[in-house]
């Protein structure tokens, strides 16, 4: 087993050397990738991949980065280079896990490399940044972050313990057989939100009864991005995109956007997809007092103390319909759009806070008028969480999967 350690040897050679010693004492081979830019590597470690080679892999040179002395540019370049290095090592079968340790600079570099690897490859980052907002470092990958507590500057009783724990955790990941059944069942990705949970639960249970492997993604921005990345990697055979709410946040300015590429991966890969309008009645914010002033006067629903929902307007819904139609029209594989005509979420039904037939109809009308004929349009006289709606989604996707030779 081989673990790659990514670190800045000009400032963290002793700490990286210590981590390598812990790994080697457990019988794990170690390859060190030097991501340092400004100084020469310390004497404690001889890297298998030099900082110059990392810069070269990014299409630049170490000399140039030193001359420019632009920290941001250097960190970005070394992150790109480190990503290219670990992709190559993994492809050659000589990388079983990646360990990183450092402050904000090497955290940026090492996690950029980690995010370039497939889900399932062990990734552990010991970082001074792990107690804050880790989304920029983790992204949509299974990066494990461990807070260093103190700065990673010298070896002491605290840093030795934490670095040792991280190294031993990596040893456990790469040397023990997980006995997880990867399975050979076709895999379906499904998107869910709290307000679409009944629909997804019914659909998941039905799909599993049919023999599909089902992976559910929480549509919280990173969830949507994670699903799309796994589709691009070929992990997913079909998509049941029940909950497209992330597009409401992208359009209006909420906190759970998945970015402008959401709803593209399945279409680009040509795999079967059935899409719905789950939770497009809402834009997500944090606590009520965190909602930007520009939205004062809008309709809100406090989901919990940390989550405030804002009702989308008819105008926003009409624009959402046009955007979603454009994404689906570009699909190269079998695609259907299912409309729950009596409500797109648990709180968009008669008697609930976000019940607004006018706003829903603006969404549906825009979709009807903008969809190409190649996209199958299903209109169901239920709300999204009715079991009959879930059955329609499942039957449609299963039909596509069978026609494509992807069914169990």
Automatic annotation (TrEMBL):
Keywords linked to the UniProt accession: ATP-binding, Nucleotide-binding
UniProt superkingdom: Archaea
GO molecular function, one term: ATP binding
Pfam families: UPF0261, UPF0261_C
Residue intervals of the UPF0261 domain: 2-177, 185-399
InterPro entries reported for this sequence: Tobamovirus_resist_UPF0261 (IPR051353), UPF0261 (IPR008322), UPF0261_C (IPR056778), UPF0261_N (IPR044122)
Protein name in the entry: Tm-1-like ATP-binding domain-containing protein
Species in which this protein is naturally found: Haloterrigena gelatinilytica
């Amino acid at each position: 087993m081989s673990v790659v350690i990514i670190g800045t040897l000009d400032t963290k050679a002793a700490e990286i050397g210590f981590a390598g010693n812990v790994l080697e004492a457990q019988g794990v081979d170690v390859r060190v990738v030097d991501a340092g830019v400004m100084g020469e590597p310390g004497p404690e470690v001889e890297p298998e991949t030099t900082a110059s080679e990392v810069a070269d892999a990014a299409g630049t040179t170490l000399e140039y980065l030193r001359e420019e002395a632009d920290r941001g540019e250097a960190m970005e370049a070394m992150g790109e280079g480190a990503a290219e290095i670990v992709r190559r090592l993994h492809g050659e079968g000589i990388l079983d896990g990646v360990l990183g340790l450092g402050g904000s600079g090497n955290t940026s570099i090492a996690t950029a490399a980690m995010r370039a690897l497939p889900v399932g490859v062990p990734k552990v980052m010991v970082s001074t940044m792990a107690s804050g907002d880790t989304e920029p470092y983790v992204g949509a990958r299974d990066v494990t972050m461990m807070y260093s507590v103190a700065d990673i500057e010298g070896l002491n009783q605290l840093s030795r313990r934490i670095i040792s724990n991280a190294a031993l955790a990596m040893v456990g990941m790469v040397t023990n057989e997980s006995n997880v059944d990867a399975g050979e069942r076709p895999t379906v990705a499904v998107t869910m939100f709290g307000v679409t949970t009944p629909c997804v639960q019914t659909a998941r249970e039905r799909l599993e009864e049919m023999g599909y492997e089902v992976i559910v993604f929480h549509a919280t921005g990173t969830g949507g991005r994670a699903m799309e990345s796994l589709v691009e990697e070929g992990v997913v055979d079909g998509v049941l995109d029940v909950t497209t709410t992330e597009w409401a946040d992208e359009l209006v300015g909420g906190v759970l956007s998945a970015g402008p590429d959401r709803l593209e991966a399945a279409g680009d890969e040509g795999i079967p997809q059935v899409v719905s309008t789950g939770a497009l009645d809402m834009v997500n914010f944090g606590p009520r007092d965190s909602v930007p002033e520009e939205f004062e006067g809008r309709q809100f629903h406090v989901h919990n103390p940390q989550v405030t929902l804002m009702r989308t307007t008819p105008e926003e819904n009409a624009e959402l319909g046009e955007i979603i139609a454009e994404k689906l029209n570009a699909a190269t594989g079998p695609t259907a759009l299912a409309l729950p005509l009596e409500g797109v979420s648990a709180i968009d039904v008669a008697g609930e806070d976000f019940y607004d037939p006018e706003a829903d109809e603006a969404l549906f009308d825009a979709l009807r008028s903008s969809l190409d004929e190649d996209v199958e349009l299903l209109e169901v006289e239920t709300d999204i969480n009715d079991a009959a709606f879930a059955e329609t989604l499942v039957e449609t996707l299963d039909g596509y999967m069978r026609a494509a030779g992807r069914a169990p």
